[in-house]
Design a protein that fits this description.
The chain has 504 residues and is α+β, with helices and mostly antiparallel strands. It has two domains: 21-50 and 85-367, BirA Bifunctional Protein, domain 2, CATH 3.30.930; 380-503, Anticodon-binding domain (Rossmann fold), CATH 3.40.50. It is built from 18 helices and 18 strands. An eight-stranded mixed beta sheet has the order 1-5-6-13-12-11-7-10. A five-stranded mixed beta sheet has the order 15-14-16-17-18. A three-stranded antiparallel beta sheet has the order 2-4-3. A hairpin with a 5-residue loop joins strand 3 and strand 4. The radius of gyration is 29 Å and the shape is elongated.
Length: 504
């Protein structure tokens, strides 16, 4: 016998979560809505594995002992480093490069899957989460980036977020690169410092201009006492970077004019502003003008972006863990990454795409009351009153008849009596239970107990007259009529839920 001291402690690793049925079903429904939009735009599904060669991921390479900064990695038996993917874009680049000759160009694809970050977990920050991406590879025109922004807007509305509650914010990394070149951060030797600057600007919504100023300089000490080392820029460089992020105007035309002034004289920056002007024009022509906004504060933290970058931001207020009203913020983003596929092919291969954070979008929909799981009905439970083979066979046939009629059903498989079986049915969210003891069996009948109506009656009914006038909570039916009677009960329950939803 295992002693208490020998017993394993059941514990969940930090930064990971278990997912319960309601969350899983809600995610499936939401992702089906997103998939419809991707399909409508002509994108095709593809799936890549969770594990890639570490060098194929590109962002992190093995250090002397273990490439554990940001990714979960291990060595294969041939001593090659493998890593759990940290996003879905780098694996797509590998897939396209490996199958380049057989794929249509441009190649339009979407994929959903788990990604992993070997980072310090915290509130709302997980080491495993799901993304849902769409990408176009082989389209050099900025019109492909404009299409991505439009598709992001359509996804927001498809999942139930109304206009005015979201905005697609767009910037261009060429503009920022022009600014960084002007302060001496151009060239491959400055890549590390440049990435720190990008990540600092990416925190603008979270920390504000003062917090980002610290991250661009010597560093920032947070409330927990953790210190984040800064980019080490001097005051003049910090001022220029912050001037770029605050170049937003009252409308797209004004913002573009402001950016032109910031990057004047830098060819790359001028090219980036011209691309933003094209996105603005295409979006307006297609009727998306108010939903897609040029915003210089958008940078995206990854180094591999090479052109337009965009984020889907939800603009309504939520209450944070401190009880403060804050804007919900980003639920996805992406951009152009012309160099990622090229690493494998040695020739320019343009690409653009975006990623939806599934868990974060679900949280947003819960806040908006758009993630209703009330339609998730449990199975009809056939109770086991007698355990002889003949009776079990009869119960099993009832379950089979219900399933063949498309009704979720199960026979109780535990070893308990009737009262625990009823409790079990309640915990399963069963809409009704089927009861057949020896007397009902002899009469060729079953008892069908409506658990939803029974709970309502016990909570609301105060006298026998109302009880009799209400829908019966338990009926006796011919065994041959079982399926028809159960279906009537389920339809009545569905109608009650629909009426309640309208009233609410």
């Amino acid at each position: 016998m295992t002693t208490k001291a020998d017993r394993l402690k059941a514990r969940l690793p930090r930064g990971f979560v278990d997912r319960v049925p309601d969350d899983l079903r809600a995610a499936e429904t939401m992702m089906a809505d997103i998939r419809k939009v991707y399909d409508l735009y002509g994108f095709e599904p593809v799936e890549t594995p969770l594990v890639e060669y570490t060098d194929a991921l590109g962002k992190f390479l093995p250090d002397q002992d273990r490439p554990n900064e940001g990714v979960f990695s291990f060595q294969d038996d041939d001593e090659q480093w493998l890593s759990l993917r940290y996003d879905l874009t780098a694996p797509l680049a590998r897939y396209v490069a490996e199958n380049f000759e057989s794929l249509p160009k441009p190649y339009r694809s979407y994929r959903a899957g788990w990604v992993f970050r070997n980072e310090k977990p915290g509130p709302g920050r997980f080491r495993q989460f799901m993304q849902f991406d769409a990408d176009t590879v082989g389209a050099p025109s900025v019109s492909a980036d404009a299409e991505m922004c439009m598709m992001m807007a359509d996804v927001m509305e498809a999942v139930g977020i109304k206009r005015g509650d979201y905005v697609i914010r767009v910037n261009n990394r060429k503009v920022l690169d022009g600014v960084l070149e002007s302060i001496g951060l151009g060239g491959d030797d400055k890549m590390g410092q440049r990435l720190v600057v990008l990540r600092a600007i990416d925190k603008l919504d979270k920390f504000g201009a003062d917090g980002v100023r610290l991250l661009l300089g010597k560093g920032r000490l947070d409330e927990s006492g953790d210190f984040t080392k800064g980019a080490g820029l001097d005051e003049a460089a910090i001022t220029k970077v912050l001037a770029f992020t605050s170049a937003g105007g009252a409308n797209g035309s004004e913002t573009i004019a402001n950016l032109e002034a910031v990057v004047a004289g830098n060819d790359k920056g001028v090219e980036g502003v011209a691309e933003l002007a094209t996105i603005e024009a295409l979006s307006s022509a297609a009727g998306y003008g108010a939903r897609i906004r040029i915003d210089p504060s958008v940078v995206r933290g990854l180094e591999y972006y090479t052109g337009p970058v965009f984020e889907a931001e939800l603009t309504f207020d939520v209450t944070n863990e401190k009880g403060e009203k804050v804007v919900f913020g980003s639920v996805g983003g992406g951009g152009r990454y012309d160099g990622l596929v090229s690493r494998f092919r040695g020739e320019p291969t343009p690409a653009t795409g975006f990623s939806i954070g599934v868990s974060r979008l679900m949280t947003a929909l819960k806040n908006l009351g758009k993630l209703d799981t009330s339609d998730n009905v449990g199975p009809v439970v056939v109770l086991v009153m007698d355990r002889d083979t003949a009776s079990l066979g009869r119960y099993q046939k009832m379950v089979s008849d219900l399933r063949q009629a498309g009704i979720r059903a199960e026979m109780y498989l535990g070893g308990s009596g009737m009262k625990p079986q009823m409790k079990y049915a309640d915990r399963r969210g069963a809409p009704c239970v089927i009861i057949q003891g020896s007397q009902e069996r002899d009469n060729g009948e079953v008892q069908i107990k409506d658990l939803i109506e029974g709970a309502r009656l016990s909570a609301e009914i105060e006298d026998n007259t109302v009880w009799r006038e209400g829908r019966q909570a338990q009926i006796t039916a011919r065994e041959s009529d079982l399926v028809a009677e159960v279906r009537k009960i389920l339809e009545a329950q569905a109608e009650d839920r629909a009426n309640a939803a309208k009233a609410g």
